[in-house]
Design goal:
The structure holds two protein chains of two kinds. Chain A is 23% helix and 36% strand. By secondary structure, chain A is an alpha+beta fold. Chain A is elongated and about 80 Å long. Chain B is mainly α. Classes of the chains: A alpha+beta, B mainly alpha.
Chain lengths: 164, 390
């Protein structure tokens, strides 16, 4: 048997072995750990970016995320995400002036109703108290950069940043 | 090579003995029982029965492959079952979990969009350049319908690709079975003349979608062109744009997966459109298994060329003793060849010297993967159907 032939059969044998070992490797989470080690993250246009600050407001809190900027030709505007949680602690109508950039002065006033039925569509009004942010009037789920949605135990509002 | 060559019936060798076929099936039988042993322990009876039926189904098909020496005919049963039962199980799951096949924005933001393999080639450039995954899913387990996350699907894809290369499209893809099933219905093709330049279609779509995904930072193929959105899940139509997107999915599905396979008896979506298939073709270069044409036996009658569902055999490739890199190792050409000139081959070995050894090694690898991945999906779809009756 030539060396090339031996190598061919060895490779084929290893392939059979790889096929048999795959489910066990999957169960140990080896692939997942390897993939996670690459340090990748889901696009912030979907995830909303990392949380940078939390404002406590009585029974509930407002999480403020880092502003998200679109990539290349992405058809969204830059935005900042604010999370109100937990939903069960929110009053029937929320109207909060929020200091988004942490300079001690409110930047936007966000107002929305909190329906008891979680399937009821949400609408939000945002008054811009700082020209760095865009006002929104009766907005639902228009775009990833301009919306109000309920996700699990939080109500998320994304406020677009005004063009500089 | 005359395209009007006389159609010769394939020379069918005497079947293997039952005892020897059983012996060769034994490893796969044990493997199937191991993979589905978890189903047998479930309290739900429909899950138990579905697991048992699927295990028997996979064993029976492998037994028939051993007994009859034929690959394509029996693999097709598995593949069509996978293509039909994947949407059944998947649609049932999404309807139960969120009440609609449309993906709501909330699910995308929460990172709960199930990740299928199709966007993998589209994610590579954005991930390499910015470390960003342009898909509204979750990287780690615990999210998505299956709870697997992007990393798990990526690992599974990598493993199957290492094992069978583009054989993914014959033993793992849970979409291709629909068109393979449709293509197998008519006895003869109604549309015989297909411009060979259509073969470049998947490469063109791949290039366009990779660049568009990088520019728009979204999985462009999933957003705009995937025909299988029509039978899985789609972008919830919030506006006119969403309606246009869903219209495109339906038209492409009807055209490429139903009408054209029926007319041509080819897997037209796979052969002329699928960017993932083009991407997988690259891994045929790294796979150890391939199909070769033994020129000393080839007449040539072009039966293999006509039988190939993806037009991966041309006069030139036959003359050179092989297939194009788009060959998905389905075995149609090997089964149909009356002279046994089309053979399974392990790279580095002599062509047509021990083709059955090459076939067995390919089938053990590919079928082990098929049982683990496709078999599990079949069992899930079957359990959904059985749940109606039990």
């Amino acid at each position: 048997m030539k060396i090339r032939e031996k190598l061919g059969y060895t490779a084929a044998g290893l392939t059979v072995l790889a096929a048999v070992l795959t489910p066990f490797l999957l169960m140990t989470g080896l692939f997942t750990k390897g993939f996670a080690a690459l340090g990748l993250h889901v696009d912030e246009m979907y995830s909303g970016g990392p949380k940078v600050r939390t404002i406590k407001t009585g029974a509930y809190s407002i999480d403020i995320h880092r502003p998200v900027s679109p990539h290349l030709l992405q058809s969204e505007k830059p935005f900042v995400q604010l999370d109100w949680r937990p939903v069960r602690a929110l009053p029937a109508h929320v109207s909060d002036a929020v200091d988004v950039d942490g300079d001690g002065r409110p930047d936007v006033r966000v107002s929305f109703d909190v329906p008891k039925d979680p399937k009821t569509p949400l609408r939000v009004d945002v008054e811009a108290l700082n020209p760095h942010y865009e006002a929104m009037r009766d907005v639902g789920k228009e775009r990833f950069s301009k919306l109000i949605v309920r996700v699990d135990d939080a109500i998320l509002v994304r406020v677009p940043l005004a063009p500089q | 090579m005359a395209t009007e060559a006389r159609i010769l019936p394939p020379r069918v060798p005497a079947p293997r003995t039952i005892g020897r076929s059983v012996l060769l099936t034994l490893p796969i039988a044990l493997w199937s029982l191991l993979i589905f042993s978890n189903s047998f322990r479930q309290p739900n009876r429909s899950v138990q029965i579905a697991g048992l039926l699927t295990a028997v189904f996979m064993m029976a098909l492998f037994f028939m492959m051993m007994r009859t020496w034929s690959t394509y005919r029996w693999r097709r049963w598995f593949f069509v079952a996978l293509g039909i039962l994947f949407p059944v199980g998947f649609i049932h799951t999404v309807m139960v979990m969120r009440g609609t096949m449309g993906i709501p924005m909330e699910e995308m933001i929460a990172g709960r969009t199930p990740f299928c393999f199709m966007p993998i080639p589209l994610l590579i450039l954005p991930a390499a350049l910015t470390r960003t995954v342009v898909f509204p899913g979750s990287i780690l387990p615990g999210a998505g319908m299956s709870g697997g996350g992007i990393a798990a699907m990526f690992g599974l894809w990598l493993a199957i690709t290492i094992v069978v290369g583009k054989g993914w499209c014959s033993y793992a893809c849970f979409f291709g079975g629909i068109e393979e099933g449709v293509a197998s219905v008519p006895k003869l093709p109604k549309l015989r003349k297909i411009d060979p330049r259509w073969r470049y279609g998947p490469w063109a779509v791949l290039l366009a979608m990779v660049l568009l995904s990088l520019a728009l930072f979204e999985p462009a193929y999933c957003m705009w062109l995937c025909p299988f959105k029509a039978v899985s899940e789609y972008v919830a139509a919030r506006n006119t744009l969403g309606l246009v997107q869903n219209g495109i999915f339906i038209v492409l599905f009807a055209g490429l997966v139903i009408v054209l396979p029926w007319l041509t008896k080819k897997r037209t979506q796979c052969a002329f459109f699928c960017p993932f298939g083009a991407f997988q073709s690259i891994f045929n270069k790294t796979s150890v298994f391939e199909v070769k044409i033994d020129r000393t036996r080839c007449s040539p009658c072009v039966l293999c060329q006509n039988a190939c569902p993806t037009m991966s055999l041309t006069e030139e490739s036959i003359a050179q003793g092989g297939t194009l890199m788009s060959c998905m190792k389905c075995g149609a050409c090997v089964d149909v060849c009356p002279k046994h000139a089309a053979v399974w081959h392990i790279k580095g070995t002599e062509v047509a010297v021990k083709p059955e050894r090459a076939r067995l090694m390919l089938l053990y690898s590919a079928w082990a993967m098929a049982v683990m991945f496709g078999g599990t999906i079949i069992a899930q779809g079957l359990a959904t159907l059985l749940h109606v009756f039990i």
